[in-house]
Amino acid sequence: MGNCLKRVTGNQQDNTTLLSNNPEPNVSTSGSSQEGLGPPIPYNQAAYYPSIATRERHLQSTNLNIGRGIGVNLVQSTGSAGLSEEEQQVRIAKRIGLIQHLPMREYDGAKKGECVICMMELQAGEEVRYLPCMHTYHAICIDDWLLRSLTCPSCMEPVDAALISSYHPTT
Amino acid sequence: MSEPQSALLLRKQLAELNKNPVEGFSAGLIDDNDIYRWEVLIIGPPDTLYEGGFFKAHLQFPKEYPLRPPRMKFITEIWHPNIDKNGDVCISILHEPGDDKWGYEKASERWLPVHTVETILISVISMLADPNDESPANVDAAKEWRESYTEFKRKVARCVRKSQEECL
């Protein structure tokens, strides 16, 4: 239960991802571009989630997603906490990179299933994301959520912890 | 453009709640043309101080629902440690994902996109039955609940009576 009183408390961030606690995450695909950015930015300080790029790709790759799934354009401008837009973009790009390590397939329709985020039945041909805990959602629904919180909405399993343990660097 | 998914999802829940009402509350829209603003009537849970009361509350959903939580505000006066004096409800499941201003909430205790009107109200009803005095929104109520329970009961009973009169 949370405290809604206005007061200053510690700034412990339980949702700071395990990845950002690492000196330099293995899954990083951007390499040297992150140098000089300082310590990882706590997730809750950036309220800017441009998931448009991923969504556009979804739409290009399949027409079936149009009109389905919780596709909300999330451009907010509340409290950027002194982050430049570029820094935020880098943060978001890192998270999108992480999300893309999660397997995604076209739903084969063999079994009945529901995406509990949009409460719609999964239809054959729709792009479905498989989380490490084996829960599945429309990619377009879960990707927007994972940009906000790296937690499975059904079992609350942290997604990044499982990703790290399953990731093998190739270099 | 067709209706956003958040509206479809809320409409679906409204239809489902109309078809299969859930015990303990009733739900509808404040304005039939605005799916994002709901009015709920919570029946004071049996065997609690709130038993017999009828508490009206409003839920305001953001366009980004279910990725972001609604805000909930009691319209009926209610004395409770986790409801502030303006009626705003303070429970962790209604706190934004990734938002950990207070420093001690786990991500799993905060908002999840699988929450529905029904699960939110079930949490609120359980909060009525079982206040959390470690994170009060109404400090005076929390203090009374802990230290002068008789006075706390008296205030709640007054709210219950008032809520019954307002409902008539």
TrEMBL record, chain A:
Residue stretches making up the RING-type domain: 115-155
A Gene Ontology term for the protein's cellular component: ubiquitin ligase complex
GO terms of biological process kind: ubiquitin-dependent protein catabolic process
SUPFAM superfamilies noted in UniProt: RING/U-box
Biased composition (Polar residues): 9-35
Region feature Disordered, mapped onto this chain: 1-40
Protein name: RING finger protein 11
Automatic annotation (TrEMBL), chain B:
GO molecular function, one term: ubiquitin conjugating enzyme activity
Top EC category: transferase
Alphabetical list of PROSITE patterns matching this protein: UBC_1, UBC_2
Domain (UBC core) ranges: 5-165
Entry keywords, A to Z: ATP-binding, Nucleotide-binding, Transferase, Ubl conjugation pathway
InterPro entries named in the record: Ub_conjugating_enzyme (IPR050113), UBC (IPR000608), UBQ-conjugating_AS (IPR023313), UBQ-conjugating_enzyme/RWD (IPR016135)
Active site: C90
Entry keyword Transferase: yes
UniProt keyword Magnesium present: no
SUPFAM superfamilies assigned: UBC-like
Pfam family, one: UQ_con
Entry-linked CDD domains: UBCc_UBE2G1
Enzyme Commission number(s): 2.3.2.23
Biological process per Gene Ontology, one example term: protein modification by small protein conjugation
Family under the similarity heading: Belongs to the ubiquitin-conjugating enzyme family.
Function of the molecule: Accepts ubiquitin from the E1 complex and catalyzes its covalent attachment to other proteins. In vitro catalyzes 'Lys-48'-, as well as 'Lys-63'-linked polyubiquitination. May be involved in degradation of muscle-specific proteins. Mediates polyubiquitination of CYP3A4.
Protein name per its UniProtKB record: E2 ubiquitin-conjugating enzyme
Gene of this entry: Ube2g1
